[in-house]
Amino acid sequence: MRALRYHGPSDLRVDPDVPAPVCGPGQVKIKPAFVGICGSDLHEYSTPTFIPKPGEPHPLTKESWPVVVGHEFSGTVVEIGASTAQLPYASGLKVGDAVAVQPTICCWDGCQPCREAHINSCEHGGFVGLSGWGGGMSDEVCIDGRFVFKLPAGIGLEVGALVEPLAVAWHAVDQFPFSRHRDGDDTIAALVMGAGPIGLGVIQCLKARGVKTIIVVEVAKRRQDFALEFGATHLINPLEEDVVKRTRQICHGNGADVAFDCAGVPASVKSAVLAVRHKGTVVNVAIWEKEVPINPNWLVFGEKVYKAVLSYLPQDFEGVIEALAEGRLKPAGMITSKIAVDRVVEDGFTPLINEKDKHVKILVDMSR
User: Fold this and answer.
1) CA angle 219, 224, 225 (to 5 degrees)
2) 127 contacts 105 by C-beta, under 8 angstroms
3) What's domain 176-308's architecture?
4) What is the location of CATH 3.40.50.720 in the chain?
5) Which helix (H) or strand (E) segment is 198 a member of?
6) Are 135 and 69 in contact, with CB atoms under 8 Å apart?
7) Cβ contacts of 8 within 8 Å, gap of 6 or more
8) Within the chain, what is the greatest distance between any pair of CA atoms?
9) Is the N-terminal amide bond of 66 cis, ω within 30° of 0?
10) Which helix or strand (DSSP H or E) is residue 256 part of?
11) How many Cα atoms are found within 13 Å in the side-chain-facing hemisphere of 203?
């Protein structure tokens, strides 16, 4: 079969004769339809972290490069393995169904996080499309039936490819205790640092949860426009305004109830912590490449909470898909381009690296 595989730093190739996967018990074989290009794909392209190097195979997949890439994808069911129908989410699946995929690789019971159902923090974990076991940029891929989610009627495969990045945002937003908020979700003020793809997802998920005040901090004009399109009620350009001062003005002097740091730059940490109210919460969504300075007193004197999130759990995919079905999430506008698999570098990676402010999500159309 045809598959786009990573052969080493800056070396992606469409290989025409990759062996097709065999659908085993508990698995679902899927024909990928659309695959999103993620920021982690761009990082891995030049500096592999999740992609296992030759001689250092992944502990669960036992694979090292070349590996198939693509972890944000939708597709169509072409085969269902034995016993798969007994698994959560897979019951009722049939050949021809449109599905979204959770690309989690975990050990299930070999580490404490997995034994406590925190499979997103598996000590041996990885991702389909990065760590082995195939990926979305191929003609076929076999996925654990516990991670295959049927798309509702009316939700197309293009939007289905957005479920994975939206699940990252949903998981982050779900860390704030909405149910314990003093006056209900519609009185919450949320601050979002950065309006890249994940930041825009957080904005949409906040809106889907009924949050009425969504303050977004972003420098780039095009991303500011996207933020407004997806639900931001206030914009702050940190080059022109003091983030903390302006946030407090918007929030009647109190600060935001919660801040989501999707920017991943040192200045965003301090701004987020100082801009939330007494007893406020800061949720770190960004992945950091370097250590950054933080003064614990920023938290101490307001008894504020700083917490981190990582990827997603199956219930986050459920939440996103339910919100899509109900029309509370309308993310189609995130798709800024669709390209062919043999043009991934030229039409996908290069624009996202050199013109990132012009794009949110570029999809690879596997039918081309």
Assistant:
1) 150
2) yes
3) 3-Layer(aba) Sandwich (3.40)
4) 176-308
5) helix 197-208
6) yes
7) 65
8) 63
9) yes
10) strand 256-261
11) 31
Burial code (b: 16+ CB inside 10 Å, e: under 16) for 95-120 equals: eebbbbbbbbbbbeeebebbeeeebb
Distance CA 133, CA 181 (A): 42
Joined together, the tokens standing for residue 358 give 């012009």
Give SS3 for 175. Answer: coil
Helix (H, G, I), strand (E, B) or coil at 259: strand
Task: Print pLDDT tens along the chain (368 aa).
Answer: 999 999 999 999 999 999 999 999 999 999 999 999 999 999 899 889 889 999 999 999 999 999 999 999 999 999 999 987 778 777 889 999 999 999 999 999 999 999 999 999 999 999 999 999 999 999 999 999 999 999 999 999 999 999 999 999 999 999 887 755 544 456 899 999 999 999 999 999 999 999 999 999 999 999 999 999 999 999 999 999 999 999 999 999 999 999 999 998 999 999 999 999 999 999 999 988 889 999 999 999 999 999 999 999 999 999 999 999 999 999 999 999 999 999 999 999 999 999 888 889 999 999 99
Nearest of 138, 130, 161, 167 to residue 41 by alpha carbon: 130
Question: What backbone torsions phi and psi does residue 172 show, to the nearest 5 degrees?
Answer: -65, -50
In this structure, what token pair is assigned to residue 245? 């001062």
User: Regarding beta strands 98-101 and 67-68, do their DSSP bridges make them parallel or antiparallel, or are they unpaired?
Assistant: unpaired
CATH no. for 3-167+312-365: 3.90.180.10
Strands 213-217 and 72-80: unpaired
Reference 197, options 42, 4, 318, 343; nearest CA is 42
What one-character-per-residue DSSP string does 62-104 give?
Answer: ---SSEE---EEEEEEEEE-TTGGGSTTTTT--TT-EEEE--E
Pairing of strands 27-36, 276-284: unpaired
Encoding tokens for residue 63?
């694979």
